[in-house]
User: What shape does this take?
Amino acid sequence: MNTSNTINRRELLGGAATLTGGLAVPRSLLANTSDKLIQGKAEHVIAIWLGGGMGQVDTFDPKKKGDPKAKKPGSYYDSIETAVPGVQVCEHLKNLAPLMDRVTTVRTVHHEMIDEHAAATNRMHTGRPISGTVTYPSFGSLITHERGAADESAPPYVLIGYPNITRGPGFLGAQHGFLYLTNTSEGPAGLSRPDGITPARQFRREAFLAELRKNAHPTRDSRLLNYDAAIEQSLKLSGPGFNSAFQIDKEPASLRNLYGGEFGQRCLLSRRLVERGVRFIEVSHNLNFLNGAGWDVHNEGILNQHGLIQELDTAVATLITDLENKRLLDKTLIVITTEFGRPPEFDSNGGRGHQGTAFSCVLAGGGLKHRGAWGETDEISKKIVSDPVGVPDFFATAFAAVGVDYRKNLYDGDRPVPITDRGQPIAELFD
Assistant: This one.
C-alpha cells in the first residue's frame, strides 16, 4: 500500500491507458490536490452494512427484467419510479421510492475484490486492500479518531452486530475501537453490572483500582496506556445515564412497529444513540437472514431475496422519516454499504455470483445535495458508463460530509498513511 500522496508508476500508466481508450477514470486519479477542501456540516454517521453482497441490479440500479430460466441477464424484479424524475428503484423499495430526493445511490462504486468475502468486507470497511505490514483502521474508527464523540457522556463508536477486526481501530489503538451489542433487547453486556455489584461495592472497586494505579510505575507502553483509556471509558459509560439509550421499549409502540423486526429495531436504536451523542453507529443486517443465505444470493438463495429488500426498505425509510421529524436528518449521514454487487447473469440454479467492477452504495441525509442517483452503468448494470467512484472516493465523500479532512495523513508510528488513500469526494453533492 502506498503511503504518500504521489501516484505510483503502475497507477499513472493505468490511468493514461484508460484515458487513451476514451473511458472514464476514478476521480482520485484526475483530482487536483490543490482543490479547495470540501467540508459538510453533518455531525453523525449511521452506517448500515449488508453482509453478503447486495445486488445492485435487483435494488438501487434496476435494469430491464431478465429471465433466470432462459439465462437472460437482467433484473430479477420490476422497477418503479421515485420522487426523482428518471431515477428508478426495485419494486420492493416502495417505501424508499418517495424519499429518494433525500438519497443518492452511488451506482458506480468499484474495486478489484470479487471472490473473497473477507477481503471485500475489509476493503469496504477500511478503504484499502489487506496489508501484511499495516493493520488499517476502519471507517468508524477513522471518523471517531478525527471527530471524537459528539457528547462526552457517550462513546464515539457503537457497533450493533458481531465484532470483527475489519470494524476495529487498527494502528490507531484500542481507545478508538467500538462498543458493541448483538441484540437490541439486552444492550452491551460489557456495560451491565452483575446483580451482586451494588453502587457501594462498585465505588470500593474503583477506589481500589485508583490506589493500584497510584502505586504503579509510570509506563510509556502504548498497549497499557490504551488499556487504561478503555477502562476509563467503560467506567464512565456503565452507569444508568448512558445505558438508558438502549431502552428502546420506551419508544411508542406505533413507531417500533413502523421500523419492523430486529433489523428495524437496530435502526431505531441507532437514532436513539445519535440523540445521546454517539458519533458513529454501524448497524449490521447480516443476522437473522430471511432466506438462509442473506445478500449472498447464489443458487436458490435468490428466491426469498425480496424479503431482505423489503426489510431494508421498511427500516431505512422509517429511519429517514424519523430523523427528519426530529430535525436530525441533515445532521446525520446514513451510509449503506456491502462488500460487492452481483452480476446481471444467473448461475445454474437461478442465483447470482459476485461483481466488484460496478455496484451500488447509498448515501442519505447528512445535509448533502441529493439527486437520487450518481453515476451510470450500462444497460445491464455490468460496466460503468460514467462517473466511476473508487472506494477511496466514496470514503472521502462520507468524510467530507462530516467535516473530516480527507486529504490529511495519519501516522502508523513514523509512517504516513493517507486517511482515504487519496480519495476525492463527489463535489456535486455539496453546496
Summary: The chain has two domains: 37-190+254-429, 193-237. Residues 305-325 form the longest helix (21 residues). The radius of gyration is 22 Å. Residues 343 and 355 are 5 Å apart (CA to CA).
